[in-house]
Amino acid sequence: MLGWRSNQPGPGSWRKHRKGWLFGDRAEENFIRHNKRVWADSSPSLPSGEVLCEFTTMQPSIIAYSYFAHVLGKKHNARVLSYMFGIDKSIDPGMRRLYESFNVEIFTCAISEDQRDEIGNLYEETLPRLITKQDVFNFSIDNIWIGDLLYDHHLRRYKVPTVDVKDSRFKVSLREALTQFIYWRDYLRSHDVRALNVTHCVYLVAIPLRLSIDAGVPTYQCNAQGCYHLSEERLWPYSNFYSYPADFAALSQDEQQVGIKMAKENIARRFDGEVGVNMAYSQKSAYTSKRIDRVLSTTNKLKVLIAMQCFFDSPNGLGPNLFVDFYEWLKFLGGISNQTDYEWYLKTHPDAFPENIAICSIE
To answer: DSSP of 38-101, one letter per residue?
Structure first.
């Protein structure tokens, strides 16, 4: 799984400087007019259920939503709702207008007093059982696994390389995870949800995904790069590589040759320092066309290159690995380096959070 990253910008990327905006620029207004023209009659006249789409400000996902919402609403004869979790969050009027242009209503999730009490009791029961970081990773409620989501959420939120169950901040993360679990468990029990679409299949935003799959609700992740149908057997998107050998073998000889040629060209573009080749989210290249002085020593010792990860960027984003996080992986390699006479070189992630640099100097 090493090196997985989201294909989209982070939450809140939609024109942060325009908080409270009502009327957009020309592109946004054209998009709204397009939606109203194309989807004017797309809502069911007598809907009998709900389709849920996680609220997002990410432009690629919103464009995909405008089409996917129509498909799901029509397929399931349901109205489409976009949810925002957290009672302290507000929605810009312009963003609400944007969603309404393709017949999607936005609502804000809020827990009840009864749920708050249950969350408190569950927290007091759960915390003493989470003794190690592996306990956190393995954590499940009612046989629904959410430990990996809690684990990666904590790393990303606080930009820490690993989980420390004694850290007061981890207690905050745990309570947040339990809050989302209880809310969505009850919501799915009390509402006729016909389908669910999320922006990511990692972090706490994926908790409703795990619950909806367990409840037998068709569950998806849809964005501008593609749509994935999630299931018990496939909890994560971007895992097409599992079937690459069979998929490639099914192509004709001509198609295989064209694909190989294209792949070589793309690799060459990356090595030349071009940014964003098959990675639209990338903002910085790991390569350059300029020559630099040799960084490796001239000894005959075996040289080992460690290509670093971003410690906070969802180490479990494609499922379980050999280690629960990238810090444990690097610490393990550090132990091996102390037992060998090799030369070890660390290459930092080219497009990672700056907090990563200090973590590389582990003992």
So the answer is: HSTT-S-SS--SEEEEE----HHHHHHHHHHHHHHHHHHT-EEEEEEE-TT----HHHHHHHHT
CA distance 213 to 297: 53
Half-sphere exposure of residue 68: CA atoms within 13 angstroms, side-chain side: 28
Spatial CB neighbours of 253, under 8 Å, sequence gap ≥ 6? none
What pLDDT, in 10s, does the model give residues 274-289? 887 777 667 777 676 6
Q: Which of 227, 195, 235 is nearest to 212 (CA)?
A: 195
DSSP 150-196: HHHHHHHHHT-SS--TTSHHHHHHHHHHHHHHHHHHHHHHHS-EEEE
CA 77: distance to chain centroid? 29
Q: Which residues pair with 109 in a beta bridge?
A: 85
In angstroms, the Cα distances linking 350 to 151, 228, 357 are 24, 28, 11
Tens digit of each residue's pLDDT (9 = 90 or more) over 11-55: 333 344 455 566 667 888 899 999 999 887 777 777 889 999 999
Q: Token digits for 182?
A: 């209880």
